[in-house]
Specification:
Structural class: alpha/beta
Number of strands: 8
CATH topology of the largest domain: Rossmann fold
Helix content: 25-40%
Order of helices and strands: HHHEEEHEHHEHEEHHEH
Number of domains: 2
Number of helices: 10
CATH class of the largest domain: Alpha Beta
CATH architecture of the largest domain: 3-Layer(aba) Sandwich
Mean pLDDT: 95
CATH superfamily of the largest domain: Alpha/Beta hydrolase fold, catalytic domain
Strand order of the largest sheet: 1-2-4-3-5-6-7-8
Shape: globular
Length: about 300
């Protein structure tokens, strides 16, 4: 099976799918508007299937990779859902404590792509933990559409508290040095920004991938070093960057930002046609270098 690329789709269709994936248009509206792209024997259903994540592509690090150990761990979230669960991964041969990295999923729960990202961090020598915001509703259901529906049912502040509790749990984990970073994608990118604002004493470094920006008045609360990854074609998110950057400069916050040319929202997710291999690999290399500098050396 071959993964299609964004160049095989009209940009207007990719933008329409982005609206659908983020709940800005419903399934019927997507079908109505996508109909004009269904030519040459293609159907709208076929287009949607082609654009939807295929998690067969999402395994860069196998679940049974001998270099790491993984488990599902529960933690307490007293101001959130009460009891939560996440996916914990760490190097198998770790002899000393490790810096922690919280991994925050997109708007559909802890799917196989995010679990694989968590394993990638473990291979790189971090104690990585990815909470599932859908755990109180039964967990990621194995279907992204259902996952989006479930996540939309959760109260935003309660979910935020669940991720705050996860970061604090990771910081206090016996295998952690106490230095914690966060990386998030889409919804998770916005949550990475939020955690940097809400728990500045816990978050040392934050890496939002195409995440919504916090309010300008909250920026001075941030103490973490920040690394931003934006996609040039992701107008709804990237257009918010100039105002955020102005607030960061005014606050004197340490940050580095990259806008990847011709990339779409979700370019790091290797399960969809929006995946941009060159941009994704460069962004990930930069992310690991950033975490190594900020979480291991205090840079």
């Amino acid at each position: 099976m071959k993964r299609q690329t964004s160049s095989e789709f009209d940009q207007e269709l990719l933008d329409l799918y982005d609206d659908y994936a983020h709940g800005r248009v419903d399934r019927r509206t997507f079908f109505d508007r996508a109909a004009r792209f269904a030519i040459g024997g293609l159907t709208v259903t076929g287009l949607l299937e082609a654009l939807t994540p295929n998690y067969a592509f999402a395994q860069q690090v196998p679940k049974d990779d001998a270099r790491i150990t993984t488990e599902y761990a529960e933690y307490s979230s007293p101001k959130g859902a009460g009891k939560m669960r996440g996916y914990l991964a760490k190097p198998a041969e770790a002899k000393a404590k490790l810096p922690g990295v919280l991994v925050v999923h997109e708007n559909r729960g802890l799917n196989p792509y995010i679990e694989d990202v968590t394993r990638r961090l473990a291979v790189a020598g971090f104690l990585a933990f990815a909470p599932d915001a859908l755990f109180p509703l039964g967990g990621y259901p194995g279907d992204d559409d259902k996952g989006r529906e479930l996540q939309a049912k959760r109260q935003p502040e309660e979910m935020t508290q669940d991720f705050i509790a996860a970061a604090q749990w990771l910081q206090q984990n016996a295998a952690c040095t106490g230095k914690v970073g966060v990386v998030g994608f889409c919804f998770g990118g916005g949550m990475a920004n939020t955690l940097a604002v809400r728990i500045p004493e816990t978050i040392v470094a934050a890496v939002p991938f195409y995440g919504r920006q916090p309010a300008a008045e909250d920026v001075p609360k941030i103490k973490a070093a920040l690394l931003f990854h934006y996609a040039e074609l992701d107008k709804k998110i990237t257009d918010g960057w100039p105002a955020y950057e102005a607030a960061l400069k005014q606050a004197g916050t340490r940050y580095t930002a990259h806008i990847y040319p011709s990339a779409n929202h979700g370019f790091h997710n290797d399960t969809t046609p929006r995946y941009d291999e060159a941009a994704a690999k460069l962004a990930w290399t930069r992310t690991l270098e950033f975490f190594n500098q900020t979480l291991r050396t205090g840079g």
